Amino acid sequence: MLPPAPAPRRASSRRGLLAAVSATVVAAPALSGCFASSATSGSAGGGDKRIRVAMMQPPRSGLSPLSDDAFKLSRWSTAETLVRLDADGDARPMLATKWRQNGRTWTFDLREGVTFHDGTKLTSADVVRSLQRAAGAAPKPRILDGVEMDVAADGAHTVRITTDDVDPLVPQRLSSPQLSILAAKAYGKKAVNPAGAGTGPFVLTESGGTSYATLDQYEDYWGGRAKAGGIDVKYIPDGTARAAALRSGEADIVEAIPVAQASLLDENQITEVPMPRTNTLYLNAESGPFRKAGLRAAAREAIDARSIVKGVYEGRADVAKGLLGPALPWADTLRAEVTGRARAADPDGAQITIGTFTDRAELPEVAAVLQQQLQKAGFTVKLEIREYANIEADALEGKFDAFILSRATILDSGDPAAYLYSDFASDGSFNIARLADAGVDTALDKASGTPAGDKRRHGIIDAEAAVLKTDAAIPLLHERVIQGDATNVVGSVKDPRERELIGLDTYVK
C-alpha cells in the first residue's frame, strides 16, 4: 500500500497497518463479468434507474468500516458520520446538528428522526457503541492513532466526547468514514458487518466479496429520497478494463481512469479532479551532500517541474506552487512568496542517490527526468528504484540523499497540519528529509494548536513556508484523479478527498 494520509500529530511509528477488524458481509453468487441491469429491477425506488459503478480496488477487509474499506461505504452513501467536511475542510452537520467545546470535552447534539436501514432509530447509545468500537480496534482507525477519548451518552440525543488533551480537531476527526455510525446489528464479537446497518440514502444489500456489491434506495432516508433506484458496483482493478467499461457502455461511472486511457475517451466523459496528493522530492538535510543548504538550493533551481507534468503526466497534473495543492482551495490564496532561502552553491559533481518506488507507475519516469535535470546542473546522480514495501524503511532511516514520494496530505481529517508535522517536525514519524529546524518546529506547533478555521489555515501556510525555506522538500506537482461518467449521468460527485461519489442527486437519465 502506498503512503496513506498521515496519522494525527501524536501518531505512533506504526505505518503500513492497513488491515483492520475483518468483517464478513452477506455473500452472494459471483457475477459473470457483466454489470447487473440498470433497469428498475430490485430497486426500492420502484421506477428510478440504477447506477452501474466500476471501482478500482476491491475490499481488503470485508467492507469493515474500521478499515480503508470505509471509504467505499462513504462513496456509496450508505454509511454516515456525525459531521461532514466542506470544500475548505471545515466541519458541517451530518448526523450531528451542532457541537460545542469546553476544554477537553466536546458535546454533540444528534439529529432526530434518523433511522438505520434495519428500521431502528438513531440514539446516543448507537453513537457511543460505534465510536467505542473504533477506539478499541486493533489497529485503530488512522484518525484516532495516538488519540485517547472517552465517549458517553448524555440523554437520548446528546453525546459527550472527552480527550486526554485539548484537541481542536475533534469534529474533523469525526468526519472520517472510519468513524461511521452503524446500527447495533452491525457489531458482532469480532467482526463489523455494515450490510443493512447504515443511515444513508442507499442500503447495502449484498456483497460478492472482491467481485461486486449491490445497494438499493432507502425510502426512509432522513435527507429525502435519492434520485437513483440503487447502485450496482463491480470491482475492476485493471485500468484499461475500467476505461473499456465506460467506452462500451457497461458502466455509468468509473473510478480512476489511467492517464494513458483518458485520451481514448470523449472529453465530455472525463473529469479531472485535483487530489490532496503531492509529488515531492525530499532532500536529506541530515547527512550527505544535501546537509548543505546551498546544494539543496541548487537542486531546487535545477528542477523544471513543468516538463515533468507535460512529459510524464501528459499535462494531467498541476505544477506545484507549494506542498499543498488545489484540492485545498484556500492554500493558494493565502500563500506568499517564500523568502530567506539559501543561495545556490556549485554542485561540482556532488554524488547523490535518489530513491523512489515502482508502485506508482509515473514515479520511475519522474526519477529519470530529475536525474537528467540534476546532472545537467552539475550533480552526479544514481537512481535506486524498488517496490514501496521494500524501500520505505531505508528511506525513513536516511539511506538516500533524496527520495521522490507521492504523498497524501488530508484524506482523514481534511486538515494538513498532521501531514506537515509527521513529515517535517524534528520528531515527525515520517521525516524522510531528516529535517530538524527550530523555526519549522515552532511554526508546526503553532499551527497544530490553533482551533479550526481561518487562523489555523494561516498557521498552516506559515508552517508550509517555514518548510519550503529550508529547501529540504521540493514540491513537484499535485496529482489529479480522472473520473469517468457516461454522458447520461447527472450529479455524480467529484470529490478530491474521495469520500463521495454517489449522492442524493446522482442519477442516470
From TrEMBL:
Residues 1-27 form the signal peptide. Pfam families: SBP_bac_5. Keywords: Signal. GO terms for biological process: peptide transport. GO terms for molecular function: peptide transmembrane transporter activity. Residues 92-429 form the Solute-binding protein family domain. It comes from the Bacteria. The keyword Cell cycle does not apply. SUPFAM superfamilies: Periplasmic binding protein-like II. The keyword Signal applies. Gene3D superfamilies: Dipeptide-binding Protein, Domain 3, Periplasmic binding protein-like II. This is ABC transporter substrate-binding protein. It comes from Streptomyces monashensis.
